[in-house]
Specification:
- It is built from 18 helices and 12 strands.
- The radius of gyration is 22 Å and the shape is globular.
- Helix 7 packs parallel to helix 8.
- It has a single domain, classed as Arginase, Chain A, CATH 3.40.800.
- Strands 1-5-2-6-11-10-7-8-9 form a 9-stranded parallel sheet, sandwiched between helices.
- The C terminus is likely disordered.
- With 450 residues, it is α/β, with parallel strands linked by helices.
- 44% of the residues lie in helices and 13% in strands.
Amino acid sequence: MSVESDLFAAATKAPPLAPPRAPSLASLSNDDPRMGDIIHTMTLSYLPKHLEQRRKAWEQQHQQQQAAGSTTRRQMPPAIVLSGFPFDEGCRRNGGRVGAEEGPTAMRKLLSRMGTAVNPEYQIDMTKLDIVDVGDVDRAPGSGPLEKAHDALHERVSFILRSGPNVVPFIIGGSNDQSFPNAMGLMDVLGHGRIGVINIDAHLDVRPLKNNQVHSGSPFRLLLEEKRFAAHITAIRQRKKSGDADKQKDGDDAENDNEKDAAQRYAFCEFAAQGSQCSAAHADFVTKTHGQQIQWLNQIRLQQQSSTTHTATSPSSTPSTSSSPSSSSSSSSSAPLPSMWQPTSPIARQFRDTLHSLCGEHLFVSFDLDSVRGSDAPGVSCPGSDGLTAEDALQMMFQAGRNPRVRLVDLSEFNPHVEEYRTGKLVANMFYYFCMGVAVRNKTSGMQMA
C-alpha cells in the first residue's frame, strides 16, 4: 500500500484533530454574507466524513423530490477544497525573491471579507456551495527539505480527490514548483495520465534541474518527462498522424478540418507566455521535443483582434441585441449578464476555447501570478511590465470554474513580502470568481444558483 493510501485509510477512520468550523447560521441570515461566512474550516482528516455527510444529505433531498413527484435529477455540485503550499525554497533555488511562503496566510486574511456570497450583478448564489478549507502542508521547523514538502503535497492532493465524489482542489502557493506534485496527485486518482494541462505563465517553466534539485522554473519539464503524461502525449500524436494519413488517402481537403481541430492535438498548453522571458531552447523543448503548444501573449492579442475585426466587417454579422445596454435593461431580471457567459476579455475568450479543446479526461489549470502585469499584481517574485490584466485573470478563473472537466487548480507566486494588499485582493478575487464559475457548472439559463 502506498503512503497516500495509508494516509487515506487512516484518515477515514480517525476522528478529526479539531472539530470543523461550519458557516455561521447567523452570518448567513444577515443581509450581506461574505466568503468567510460560507467556508467550512476543518482538518484534512475530517474531510472524507464531511463529504460523505454531504453526499447522504444530497441523496435524501433527491428522494424527497422524487416523493413529491419530481422526475429530474440534478447532479450534486462540486465541492471546492482550498489548501495551501507555504513554501518558496523553489523560488530561492531559481534565483527569485523569497516571500511567497506567506502567500496562503495573506490570501486567507483577505478572502474572509471577500464577497458578497450572493452576487446580485451575476445572479449567482454561492451560499449553497460546499467550500472547505483544510489548511496547509506542514512547514513547521524540522518538516524537512522542499522535496519532502512536495511528497506531502502530492499525497494531500491525492487524498483530497479520493475523499469524495466531484471534489476540486484549489491549491494556493507558494512557489510554482508546486505544480508538478499537484499534477502527480491528479494523475494518481483521475485519468491515469490522460489529463489536459494549461500553464498560465509569463515563463515556460521547463528549465533543467539545478544541482539535481527541483525549483520554481522546472515543474513542467518534469511533467512533460513524466512517463504517464508522456505516454498520453505520444498517443495523441499517433492518433493525429493516423488521422492525417487517412485524410490524405481519401483525397479529402483537410485544411478546414485541420484548422478546426488544431488545438485538439495537445494535452499541454503554455498560455500567455512572453517571448522576452522565455529562451528559444525552452520553447523548442515544448513545441519540437514534445510537440505541445505555446500560445504567446501577443499572438493571442493579435488573433483575437483579427477575429473581432472580421466579425465587425462581415456582411453577415449583426449586432448582438443581448449585449446592448437597452436590451440588457429591458430583459428579464433572471437573465445572466452576457459577459459572464461570453467574456468581454478577448484573452479570456481564447482561454475558454483552449480549455474546451485540450485533450484529457480531466483538466489541471495552473496559474502563475507573474503572468499578470505588475501594475495589477506587483506582489510577485518576478513582476512584469506587460502581461494579463486583472480583468483577464478574473474572467479566466470564472471560465475555469465553469468548465466541468477542470478538477484541479493551483495559483503560485503571490509574494506578500513584495506587496500584500492590492495583489492579495486580486488573488482572493480570483478564488471568488472561480467559485462563481463552479456554482453555475452545467447550467445555461435562468437564475443561476448553486
